[in-house]
Fold Lipoprotein.
Amino acid sequence: MKLFFKIGVVFTAVILSACGGINEQVRQHDDYLPNDNGVKKAYDGLYANLSNSLKVALEDNQKKWQQDTFKNCTKNPQTQKQCQATANHHRLSVLTHHQRHLANLLNFLQN
């Protein structure tokens, strides 16, 4: 029974983690630098630890995020670079947060 509970907790948490960034909003800040490589590294790290069905969900989430970022950041060409940098910073923090939760859940299952 405990095993089924642990599996249910992990499944629910991973699904929520993979889908949690769908409604992310792009915010404007002056102090963020573009970090495309950091986002890619965090995305790849999270992607490598998911099952096939969750990988598909994460891919869909990433595509939606990229479309939303493009749509929001191309409204004003003068602030496009800053907008993309802010979006990348936010996405990096979200992906890193999901990675931490996944690692904690894996540790929980191993104990």
Q: What stands out?
A: Confidence is low (pLDDT under 50) at residues 18-33. Residues 105 and 111 are 10 Å apart (CA to CA).
